[in-house]
Structures are given as structure tokens and as C-alpha cells.
Specification:
The complex is a heterodimer. In chain A, helix 8 packs antiparallel against helix 13. Helix content of chain A is 49%, strand content 16%. Chain A folds into 3 domains: 181 residues, no CATH class; 217 residues, no CATH class; 192 residues, no CATH class. Chain A is built from 23 helices and 24 strands. By secondary structure, chain A is an alpha+beta fold. Chain B is α/β, with parallel strands linked by helices. Classes of the chains: A alpha+beta, B alpha/beta.
């Protein structure tokens, strides 16, 4: 029987090529795009879950500061892990991961390669036991032989040593410090929040951080929040209680205010998608994309249901015959389910091909390394769930409708299409409502991205490139003077911080009238006298540094710092930063020194021209010459380091790379949703023109013009699109307003966005329908009347 | 075999109620060949649909082999229909996507006949209908007469007790029409009961008895000698 069903289904597909093509193309694109998005979603949701102990692993975060300057940091001080293991009974294990920015190049024999500090980390020995990162070579019980050992990833081993066994070989860091490879770890999975190329023993860090200078020893210094700390805790232990216990230990060892260093535990499973304070980070995009995937799949299903039910009238005769000669409803139901399944199978195979072809481009746009491996359980789970859901959604209604026909009525063509026509109209409205929603979403996302791109940041970053000085730092004044003799170089300055995205904060401040129970978190910038003029940061009071000796005890604050501290008439007032008690000599207008997702935070400039970051402003035309000039000095002082510089515009754009990727993907998905919707509308318009062929013929004989006929055929569909617009626009507006709330600074929403979306949808729908309408209107009426 | 008593059928619209069958009573014995005639709208097709369990009566009784079937639900009707009744229509009503063989095989599939047995039975009936040479053709590749022979083959492949024919020669020329009537007569001679609706006096003469309807009632019965 199944063979007979498949045979009929196949022949139906072949004999109705036009409708079959529309159905299969719509389903193929819908399934391909839906699956691509859901694979992305699955990848995002799978982060860190390869760790078998993930349910027991928590990251320790710290709440710092009070009032408007309160923040939750993802790093804590080093003693937290030490005391958690020693003094908190529920803690089984603790791991610290501390970035190692000490080195930038490593050499093996003649091969010198650059390593970014973000890929180098000091870790506790327990790292290899708590997490499931496989130590391929080395001793898991003693991974680092001594504090001069390093463990490298497989890929890193290949880069430096090729096929030679790296264990026991020496890597020379910055041509001065030798490290012996004591192990090789499998490359970090693409869906790991913890990544890197080289792991160093935390003993090495402890040795550097020995308490013999300004800072205390590493395991005693509660004031430096620099260690990512993971705890493995016993099942059913209260994470809240552990956090409170750690906070109490902190206050016991460091007599700080109750607002500083309040520890809280975040499940490791959450760290990729949620901020340390628990607010949504990537999960928002995951949710948006999941919705988009579901909408696209629904749109594709609606196409199938609409075309199948519209054409049900044409199949009523076949259904009747089958019923008359003995088919019961169940058999017919199964037949139509199998037809849909066949259509789906073809579409799914084509979708797989499409996914394979588009995966490299998709990975490039999404900035990921996803693989479409049909043998992977992850992929199959997504595929199976998507296909079953869409198959059920697409097959049941048409099968129920077709199998419900009363045989004799259907045979005589007396089936009323009114009921399912209304249902079809509702589905078209639904489909276009989703599409219009996506258009509105796309316009608003693009508008926001454009806003970020063009927003006045309050400083001028144009034609400025930055480099880390390394050994040039000791000769900064001389180099600066020489650079400024060249007309290509307009200005040179230095700082210890990035003006694009400052990440450092301190709560170690004081001023007259400060409430002792509050902590102000402020971003400190150590700059030279040309920093503020070069970036054209505006003063609203006071003056700039002059490089005089007294400037070392002077401070410049931003407006927000003045507002939050509540210092009235700040010029000449006392301000203390760390151990330096100084005077406020200026207040600058607020400018954006971090992502536009954040509000402007308090900031303090102090005069210390010893920062590692050098900024060179060039005249736009001679940038290459300026870069070359800087390179000459680089070669002179930093011959061991490869020359590297970045333009601030690029750094700024990189900060919003994820948003831009999201924007591009959203554009593509919205376009596809519209395309699939139009494909369905095209099919319906064709069907309508076919069933109304006699009416069109009669109207033409009676004098109707092509325009009359086109209007008659298009009107009904356009009304549906307008209804869809009326439903979608307020909902999309509301949802996108909520999305924009994630940005502290956002583009204004204007009514024209809605207008453009509506106009675009109506225009696209009209163009889609009018092709068939005009074709029907131009047909010779004699032919249609004769055929009737 | 068939006994209908005071059978009633109405067609209602919002404003008008039309009586299709007005307390009609008819008996058909097993092995009979009955022709039903009458002007358009007299209720003959309605009667055939009710006899074929394709439509419900609004009143009266319908005994099929002594069992009251007037109040059967759709599942029971489908079951009774597929095992006992074959249909032949004026417009053939073959499924365009299936070949001759597959069209004839379909009733056997629905009654769950095993594949090996189906082939033998279909071939036998195609042979009998002299259409074997067209077994792999699609309906649109056949002449009207050939299509109707396929339709008859399909109607008889399950060895039904009753064949209901609705103007079986209506779309055929006289030569093909006669051939189809000969086929029906042969089937009847082999024991199959046939009830045929027709406008044609010529075709009606093949039957044993003619029932003439008017306004949903029997107005005359002719026994053919």
C-alpha cells in the first residue's frame, strides 16, 4: 500500500511541476536556513557543556562599588580560590586562570611566532582535572614540572615544532625566558569559553607576585581582581551560602567596606550567554535567532499548507474515487501524510546540499567554526526536531482536509472552498506578518548599527594608530620628538589604557565629603600632556596637563565622575587615587571610552607619560609614511618583536563585530523570509488565476480592461498583506524597542520605519501577484470560455 | 438483496427544500439487472448514491442483505462498500496518475489483498475486459470505451455482489456503449446484481426490469421479457 502511495505522490509531484517546484523550493530554503540558524543556536547553547562536571562547576564573580558605579566583575582576587579550597567545606576543587601578558613572541630554533596575551594564561594544576580538556602528553598529576614549564595545545605544537614531539623542547619567550614544554593539551573546542594556546604554571605568577613591592603576595592580595576563578562544589551545596562564606572570609582578611568584594557564584553553563551580574548577554541573540528560525520554518510550512489546501479542490475527484472504491479516511490520511513526507524528503536532501555549500560562507559571516556533520548527534538532534515539527505542522491539516471530503459531493465538484479559503487567508496574513516583522527588525538593527558607526563619541579617533611600545617606552620622549619633526605625523601621545574600550577600574579613591560606606568605581587613565588635545576631548572647566612637575599630583575628571562624587566646584579640590593625594585641575566633557552598550562611567586622568600605548595621529594622506617612521623606531628598539599597529577606527569597529555579524545575518534571514513568503503568494496567485479563468474570460468579454482584471485578482491578496502589516507593525515595534534597550545609546525610532516596511511588503507582494494577474488578464478569453 | 422502504431524501437550502426521494420503496433481488429511468431531477442519481452508501437518507429503511444500513457510520459504510459494491460512472472516474493496472488494483489494495494475489486477479479481469494490452497505459492515453472498460474492470475486481452503474454509456458512442452493456450483461449472467441509472431506452432493454421515477417516487415498473 505504501508503494502505491509513494507512486501516486511521486507522479503527482512530476505532473504538477510548477506547484511542486514552489513547494520544494520554499521548503528547501526554509529548512536550510532554519537548520543553519538552529545549528548556530545549538552551538551557542552547547558552550562548555562538554565538561562532564559542568553541573558542579561555578565561576566566582564579584560585586564591587555602590550606587551608579556598582559593577559585577567576572574576575576576583587570587586568595578567593586559595581560601575556598581551604576554608569552605562544600568546595571540592578550585582553578584560577590568569591571563599572561608578559610575553608577545616565542621562539623555537629559528622560528619566532607572535602570541596574543589573550591566548596565554597561568593556571592551577587542578585545571586539567576539573575541566575535560584532554592532556594528550604529560602527567595529569604533575602537569608542570616546575615554574618554567609550559603546556601547549596541539595546534600550537604543530606551529612551532611541526611533527617533532614537543615535550622536553624549549620555547624562548621574548628571547629572554626559556620555557620547557611539559605537556600537550588537545585544542580547546570551538564551543569552549576557556581558550588559549599556552598554559603556564600559576607558580610562575606567584613568584612574580611575591609581595616584595607595592603589591602584597598573590595569595594574600584581596584588592586585585584579576583571576578568573572556578570552583567545583559538592552536589546540593548552596551556591549562595558558599558565596556568602567567601565574602565573610574576604572581609575577615581585608577590612574593606561591605560594598566591595561581595562574591556570587555563576554556573559555568551560563558564562557564555550571561553577564557576570546575571543579565542577558549572548542569550538575547540566541533567543532572537531561535524566533527567526522558527518564523522562517513556519513561513515555509504555511506555503506548503496553503498550496496543498488550495489545490485540494483539484484533487477532490481523486479522493472521491478512492473513497468510493474502498479507501477509508485513515488510509487517505496516511496517503497524504506520505505525500508531504516525500516532498519533505526531497526538500531536506536539497537543504542538506545547500547547507554544505553555504557553510563556509555562513561560518565567515557568523564568525564561527561550525561543522555540518550528519553523523554528529548535535546536528541530528536539530535536524530531527526541526523536520518532525515542520512535517507535522505541514502535513496534518492538508491530510485531514483532503481525507474529509464527502465522496459524492467532491466528485460533482460541490466542495465548498469557503472554510479552508478563510484558513488560507489567515495563514497568508500570518506569513506576511512575520515577514513584515522581520523587515521592521532589520531596518531598526541596521539603523542602530549605523548609529553606532556614526555617533559622535566625544573625541576624534580619525587617522590615529596605536602600538604597544615595549622597549621604546624607555625612550618615549626622544622618539616622540623625532616623530614630530616629520610632517606626516601630526601628534604623538601615550597612555596606559585604550581610549576605545577601557577595561580597568579601581575603587581605591577618596575625596573630601565622601561617604565612607560607598565605593566609587572609576576608570584610571595615565596620559601625557598631548593625549587630550590629540583626541580633541573638550574641557568644560579647568585646564590640561602641562607636563610640569606639579602635574604628577594633578587630576582631570570627566563630567560623570564629578556628578557621581558630588564634588561641587571641583577645580582645586582634593582627590585621592590609590596612594596619590592630588588636586583636580580640570573637568572634561563626557566621551565614550567603552562600548555604546554601556553608559559613560566615571573616569580620571592622571599625568604619567609612561604608559605602554603610543598613539600617533597622521595626516590622512600620509598614513603609510607615518607607519614606516614608527617602524624604523620599532626596529631600533624592538627587533625581537614583530611590528604591530592598529588604527583606532579598526579597533572601534572590531568592538561591534558581533553586532555587525548579527546585523548581516538578520538582513539575510529577513530577505529569505520575504522570498519564501512571496514564493507562496506567487503559487496562490497562480492558482487563483487558474480557478478564475472562466470568470476572467466572461469579464473580459463584457469589457473589463487588463487593469480591471489585475486589480480584481490582486485586491484580495493586498488586503491580506495590509492586515498583516497592521498586526505586525506594533508588535515588531514593541519588540525592537525592547531590543534597543540593551544599548545605553540608541538610534531614534521614527514612524517612517514602519511606513517603509509596510510599503516594501505591499510593493513586493504586488509585484509577485501582478505577474500572474497580468498574465491571466492578457489571456485570450475565447480560449478560456471554450475550454470551459 | 436490497430492500428500501419509504426512503426519503431532502435537499435544503436557506430558502428552498427540495424532495429528492419521496417515501420510495423498492426491492431488488440477488442476480437481478435493474434499470432506473426518469427525467432529470427525478431522484435516480440520489437513489443510486444512497444504494451505494455514498449518501445518507433522511428517512426510511435500507436493508442490504437483510441488514439495516441506513444508519451506518462512515467507517461501516466504507467497509461494506469496499467488499460488496462496485461502481461504474458516466465519466469513468479513473485516477489520472495511475496506470490501467494500478487503477484496477486499487480496490484490492484497500481490501488488503496480498500483492501476489492482486497481480493474478488484476490480470485476470483485464484479460476478461480485453484491455490487458493497455495495462501500463495511463487513462488519458485510452479511448472513452477503453476507459470505461477499465472502470468496469475496477468495479468487478473485488467480486462485488452489486454493481451500481450511473449512466455507464453516457460518454460513449453507440459501438463502445454496446460493448460496455454487453460486459455488464455478462457480469449479471455470472451472478452479479446490477442497478443501472440511464436515460437510454436502448440500454435499459438490457435489464430485467425498468423502474421509472418521477419526483422521487416510482411511477411505473416494466418487466422485460
Amino acid at each position: 500500500m505504501i508503494k502505491n502511495y509513494l507512486k501516486t505522490a511521486w507522479r503527482n509531484l512530476i505532473s504538477k511541476k510548477f506547484y511542486s517546484a514552489i513547494n520544494i523550493i520554499g521548503l528547501t530554503i526554509g529548512l536550510a536556513v532554519g537548520l543553519l540558524i538552529l545549528i548556530w543556536v545549538k552551538d551557542e547553547l552547547s558552550y562548555d557543556r562538554f565538561n562532564t562536571k559542568i553541573d558542579q562547576i561555578y565561576k566566582v564573580n564579584a560585586s564591587i562599588g555602590t550606587g551608579a558605579s556598582r559593577q559585577v566583575w567576572g574576575n576576583v582576587s587570587a586568595p578567593v580560590a586559595f581560601h575556598a579550597l581551604k576554608d569552605v567545606p562544600g568546595v571540592i576543587n578550585a582553578v584560577r586562570i590568569i591571563q599572561n601578558y608578559n610575553y608577545s613572541t616565542f621562539r623555537y630554533k629559528d622560528k619566532i611566532l607572535r602570541e596574543n596575551g589573550n591566548n596565554l594564561a597561568f593556571v592551577d594544576d587542578s585545571f586539567f582535572k576539573m575541566f575535560d580538556f584532554k592532556l594528550l602528553k604529560g602527567n595529569i598529576n604533575k602537569p608542570f614540572i616546575n615554574d618554567q614549564s609550559v603546556i601547549i595545545t596541539e595546534r600550537t605544537a604543530k606551529r612551532y615544532f611541526g611533527s617533532v614531539d614537543p615535550v622536553g623542547k624549549t620555547l624562548m619567550a621574548d628571547s629572554k625566558d626559556p620555557y620547557t614544554v611539559s605537556g600537550v593539551i588537545a585544542d580547546f573546542p570551538g564551543n569552549s569559553s576557556i581558550t588559549g594556546n599556552m598554559l603556564f604554571s600559576i607558580d610562575r605568577k606567584r613568584k612574580e607576585y611575591d609581595g616584595k613591592d607595592y603589591w602584597k603576595a598573590m595569595d594574600e592580595d584581596w584588592g586585585n581582581y584579576f583571576a578568573q576563578t572556578f570552583l567545583q562544589i559538592k552536589a546540593n551545596e548552596s551556591t549562595k551560602a558558599i558565596g556568602e562564606k567567601l565574602t565573610r572570609i574576604h572581609f575577615k582578611y581585608q577590612k574593606s567596606k561591605s560594598s566591595d568584594g561581595v562574591f556570587q557564584l555563576q554556573p559555568m553553563a551560563d558564562i557564555h550567554l550571561y553577564n557576570p551580574d546575571g543579565s542577558a548577554a549572548g542569550i538575547q541573540t540566541v533567543k532572537v535567532f531561535s524566533i527567526v528560525a522558527i518564523l522562517i520554518l513556519i513561513i515555509a510550512c504555511i506555503n506548503y499548507v496553503n498550496l496543498s489546501t488550495a489545490r485540494a479542490m483539484l484533487r477532490s475527484k481523486e479522493v472521491s474515487i478512492r473513497k468510493i472504491i474502498g479507501a477509508d479516511r485513515k488510509q487517505l490520511f496516511i496517503q497524504f501524510i506520505i505525500e508531504t513526507a516525500l516532498c519533505f524528503t526531497i526538500a531536506l536532501l536539497l537543504a542538506f546540499i545547500l547547507i554544505y555549500i553555504s557553510m563556509p560562507l555562513y561560518n565567515k559571516i557568523a564568525g564561527k567554526q561550525m561543522h555540518f556533520d550528519l553523523f554528529s548527534a548535535n546536528v541530528w538532534q536539530v535536524v530531527a526536531l526541526t523536520v518532525i515539527a515542520t512535517l507535522v505542522a505541514s502535513s496534518i491539516y492538508p491530510a485531514l482536509l483532503l481525507s474529509s471530503f464527502k465522496p459524492i459531493s467532491a466528485l460533482k465538484g460541490k466542495i465548498s472552498g469557503a472554510g479552508n479559503a478563510s484558513f488560507r487567508k489567515a495563514l497568508v496574513v500570518c506569513q506576511f506578518a512575520f515577514s513584515i516583522g522581520l523587515i521592521i527588525g532589520t531596518i531598526i538593527i541596521n539603523k542602530q548599527l549605523n548609529y553606532i558607526h556614526t555617533k559622535q563619541l566625544g573625541y576624534d579617533k580619525e587617522h590615529v594608530f596605536a602600538l604597544s611600545m615595549h622597549n621604546m617606552r624607555d625612550h618615549y620622549t626622544a622618539i616622540k620628538a623625532q616623530l614630530l619633526t616629520h610632517p606626516e605625523v601630526l601628534s604623538v601621545t601615550a597612555s596606559d589604557n585604550s581610549i576605545i574600550n577601557s577595561s580597568s577600574n579601581t575603587g581605591d579613591t577618596d575625596w573630601d565629603g565622601k561617604d565612607p560606606n560607598t565605593t566609587l568605581l572609576i576608570s584610571p587613565f595615565e596620559i601625557d600632556k598631548d593625549f587630550l588635545p590629540m583626541f580633541k576631548v573638550q574641557f568644560i572647566a579647568g585646564r590640561n596637563f602641562t607636563a610640569s612637575k606639579s602635574d604628577t599630583a594633578n587630576f582631570i575628571l570627566n563630567e560623570t565622575a564629578v556628578k557621581i562624587t558630588g564634588i561641587k566646584n571641583p577645580l582645586g579640590k582634593r582627590f585621592k587615587l590609590h596612594s596619590l593625594d592630588g588636586t583636580i585641575i580640570g573637568v572634561v566633557k563626557d566621551f565614550h571610552f567603552a562600548s555604546l552598550k554601556e553608559t559613560i562611567k566615571p573616569l580620571i586622568f592622571s599625568y604619567r607619560p609612561t604608559g605602554d600605548q603610543m598613539f600617533i595621529k597622521t595626516s590622512g594622506k600620509n598614513a603609510t609614511a607615518a607607519i614606516k617612521l614608527a617602524d624604523n623606531f620599532w626596529k631600533q628598539y624592538n627587533s625581537n618583536f614583530p611590528y604591530e599597529y592598529t588604527f583606532l577606527d579598526d579597533t572601534y569597529n572590531a568592538m561591534y563585530k558581533t553586532d555587525q555579524q548579527t546585523g548581516i545575518l538578520f538582513d539575510i534571514f529577513a530577505g529569505i523570509a520575504i522570498f519564501i513568503s512571496c514564493l507562496g503568494l506567487f503559487g496562490l496567485a497562480t492558482y487563483t488565476a487558474q480557478v478564475k479563468v472562466k470568470e476572467i474570460g466572461i469579464r473580459k468579454v463584457l469589457g473589463a480592461s487588463v487593469a480591471n482584471i489585475t486589480a480584481m485578482l490582486s485586491k484580495d491578496f493586498l488586503v491580506l498583506v495590509i492586515i498583516a502589516f497592521a498586526i505586525a507593525s506594533p508588535i515588531a515595534w514593541y519588540m525592537m524597542s525592547k531590543w534597543l534597550m540593551g544599548y545605553a545609546y540608541r538610534a531614534q525610532l521614527h514612524w517612517w520605519i514602519i511606513g517603509v516596511a509596510g510599503f516594501a511588503a505591499i510593493l513586493i507582494a504586488f509585484l509577485t501577484i501582478s505577474f500572474q494577474s497580468i498574465k491571466a488578464a492578457l489571456a485570450n478569453p475565447v480560449k478560456s470560455l471554450r475550454s470551459e | 438483496m436490497i430492500k428500501i422502504t419509504e426512503l426519503q431524501k431532502y435537499y435544503r437550502t436557506e430558502e428552498v427544500e427540495t424532495i429528492a426521494l419521496n417515501k420510495l420503496s423498492i426491492d431488488v433481488k440477488e442476480g437481478e439487472f435493474v434499470a432506473i429511468m426518469g427525467p432529470s431531477g427525478c431522484g435516480k442519481s440520489t437513489l443510486l448514491n444512497i444504494l451505494g452508501l455514498l449518501d445518507d437518507p433522511d428517512g426510511g429503511s435500507y436493508l442490504f442483505n437483510g441488514i439495516e444500513v441506513a444508519d451506518f457510520n462512515e467507517r461501516k459504510r466504507a467497509d461494506l462498500r469496499k467488499h460488496n459494491i462496485g461502481f461504474v460512472f458516466q465519466s469513468f472516474n479513473l485516477i489520472d496518475e495511475l496506470t490501467v493496472f494500478e487503477n484496477v488494483e486499487l480496490p484490492l489494495i484497500y481490501t488488503g489483498v496480498p500483492a501476489s494475489e492482486r497481480v493474478a486477479r488484476v490480470e485476470k479481469v483485464l484479460d476478461k475486459m480485453q484491455i490487458m494490452h493497455r495495462r501500463n497505459h495511463y487513462p488519458q492515453q485510452l479511448s472513452g470505451g477503453q476507459q470505461q472498460r477499465v472502470a468496469v474492470a475496477r468495479a468487478v475486481v473485488n467480486n462485488p455482489k452489486l454493481i451500481l452503474a450511473d449512466e455507464p454509456t453516457g460518454n460513449l458512442d453507440s459501438s463502445n456503449g454496446n460493448e460496455v452493456m454487453e460486459l455488464l450483461t455478462d457480469l449479471n449472467e455470472q451472478g452479479t446484481t446490477i442497478i443501472m441509472v440511464t436515460h437510454s431506452e436502448h440500454d435499459a432493454r438490457y435489464s430485467h426490469r425498468i423502474i421509472r421515477l418521477l419526483d422521487g417516487q416510482t411511477v411505473m415498473e416494466n418487466i422485460m421479457i
